[in-house]
Amino acid sequence: MIHSSPTTRPAFSGWTTLAGVMLAYGAICGAVTYGFGVFLPSMSESFGWSRSALSGPYTLFLMIGGLLGPLAGVTVARFGARKNIILGNAAAALGLLGMSQVGEIWQVYLFFGVMGGLGLAFAEFLAATTVINHWFVRKRSLALGFLFASGGIGGFLMPPFISALISGLGWRFAWAALACVHLIMGVVGAGWLIRNKPEEEGQFPDGHASQEQFDAWREKETGPVYHTREDWGVRDALRTPALWILLCLFSVLLFATTMLTAHQVAYLQDLHYSPMVSATALGLMLGTSILGRLLSGVLGMRFKGMHLAAVFMACMGFGFLSLMNARDLFFVYLYSILTGLGFGGMIVLLPHTMGAYFGRANFSRIVGWTTPIVTLASAASPLLAGFLHDSTGSYTLPFAVATALIFACCLLALAARPPKPRNKASNPRA
After folding, report:
1. Is the pTM for the entire model greater than 0.90?
2. Of 145, 173, 242, 258, which shows the fewest CB atoms inside 10 Å?
3. Helices (H), 100-124
4. Which H, E and C letters describe 39-100, residue by residue?
């Protein structure tokens, strides 16, 4: 007698997909975004280029990464985030390899600014958060916490590693080594593990057994954390004050942190700290941000985002004040801890809140169309800091501007309330 066995559901692929996105995100953060500032003093000394001149390629890198956001959002929606991540990271790896052979400043613009910028646009924040937003709703903040913790791990490990490579074997070999690491992690490993959407695998967000079960959870879910019950379109989202407040917070966050990643190592060396201490301080800040990212992931499931944002931005503000008074090693470490906690918390909280406020279906398009706004507001910071340093001989003025903007955002965050549904009906969870 033959007994038919019931059809078994496929194992939930969200966690292995998360692991793949973590590989890709950790690679591009550690090797590309956070790595450039460690090379700045050595390359400046080798070629006699000013810091403002070397800040230009980093600014181009950020601008290309942001201004191509609408195109990246469309390609993610049409072809899936997995292809974007693979191709974008392949371009970034080739750019890193090219950096090992540069001899003219225009080559830095090409290999880092353009090719690295393609990786940033198509393979980093937008693609990674879109994958997480598709696979997780109830556990979105926790998954984002793990995702962005991988960026903190990359930032914690890579600056000291790069500094050691430069000291021992030279900056050209260090660029080539980073290209190999990025290819293995961001292209091979990520491509093997990542899946675009649960529906394409016969699965549903958070591991729910069916669409009906997921819809039933969403209808009855209550609590302090807001989750929209509808998917907003790009135009409707752009009409809400909440989105513009989130964009302001994101702009200031990136304005401040890109300034640090490009200039913090050089700033501390100007204060006569050793290259290793200066690079380790950046690594410690990014390493401490791992704790902030994980805390934000857990707390984001229990507390309102606007309250958490005010706390995390305040941590960043006091961290910048410590950096501006870093004549003693204690304040260097205090800066690293406070800024890391604040930055880590915000980098998780902002995409989580955008997904919670505006839904899954058009997340990549909404983020894609808003990315240029964030980029134009933030990408000028490395160039501005380099220019003001060359003009005044100090980083005091650019760091003071960043500190003032951060503290202003502590108050602005409290106004980031959930948008009202388009049908004007009352929402009991808002």
Report:
1. no
2. 173
3. 105-108, 117-123
4. HHHHHHHHHCCCHHHHHHHHHHHHHHHHHCHHHHHHHHHHHCHHHHHHHHHHHHHHHHHHHC
Q: From CA 430, how far away is CA 428, in angstroms rounded?
A: 6
CA angle 106, 112, 115 (to 5 degrees): 105
77-95 pLDDT, tens digit each: 888 899 999 999 999 999 9
Task: Summarize pLDDT for 259-273 with one digit per residue, the tens.
Answer: 887 788 888 888 888
Structural tokens at position 62: 């950020």
Q: Is residue 430 part of a domain?
A: no
The count of domains in the chain is 1
Q: CA 188 to CA 186: how far, in whole Å? A: 6
Distance between CA atoms of 320 and 260, rounded to whole angstroms?
Answer: 10
Which segments of 271-328 does DSSP mark as H helices, in order? 275-299, 305-324
Tell me, rounded to whole angstroms, the distance of Cα 186 from its chain centroid: 15
**Amino acid present at 313:** M
Residue 296: closest CA among 85, 175, 92, 146: 146
State the pLDDT confidence band at 2, using cuts at 50, 70 and 90.
very low
Residue 377: give its domain's CATH number.
Answer: 1.20.1250.20
Quote the domain boundaries for residue 311. Answer: 14-198+217-415
What are the CA-CA distances from residue 141 to residues 2, 18, 129, 210 (Å)?
47, 12, 11, 22
In which residue are the tokens 């004007």 written?
424
Query: Whose CA is closest to 146, among 2, 277, 14?
Result: 14
